[in-house]
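PROTEIN DESIGN WORKSHEET
SECTION A - STRUCTURE
LENGTH: 140
TOKENS:
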């Protein structure tokens, strides 16, 4: 798919055999984290829609609005702060829609420098940790 600003890419479609419709919306290199998290969840029969946002400004508002109406949950993945980032923008855009939005990214605190994998483990941003969080949220 050629890049066009404001046009997201659907990586994985909805599987109609699920009780809840969930979507993973990812920006940048967090797409790999979202896909790895989805792979872990597939072992539990959970197969989220996966969206590669591709651009944050402009966002694909048409696609995102459709997700807001059809999904029970939308989980965002971004390699940046969850405050004021892509997930915050998505919450603003979909504030009157049905979907509950959960943002995964970096906490609003100082994060020391070091090995990226170790730091992501410390802040809970590794696929196995995120899959656990998704399962916990879906079971509420």
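SECTION B - SEQUENCE
RESIDUE ASSIGNMENT:
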């Amino acid at each position: 798919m050629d890049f066009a600003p404001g046009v997201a890419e659907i990586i994985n479609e909805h599987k109609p055999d699920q009780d809840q419709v969930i979507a993973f919306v990812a920006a940048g290199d967090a797409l790999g984290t979202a896909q790895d998290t989805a792979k872990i969840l597939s072992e539990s029969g959970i197969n989220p829609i996966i969206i590669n946002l591709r651009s944050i400004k402009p966002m694909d508002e048409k696609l995102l609005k459709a997700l807001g109406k059809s999904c029970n949950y939308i989980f965002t993945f971004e390699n940046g702060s969850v405050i004021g980032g892509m997930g915050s923008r998505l919450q603003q855009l979909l504030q009157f829609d049905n979907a509950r939005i959960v943002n995964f990214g970096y906490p609003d605190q100082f994060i020391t420098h070091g090995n990226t994998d170790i730091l992501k483990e410390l802040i809970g941003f590794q696929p196995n940790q995120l899959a656990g969080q998704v399962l916990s949220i879906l079971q509420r």
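SECTION C - NOTES
The helical segments are 30-42, 61-70, 86-93, 116-122, 127-138.
The two ends are 37 Å apart (CA to CA).
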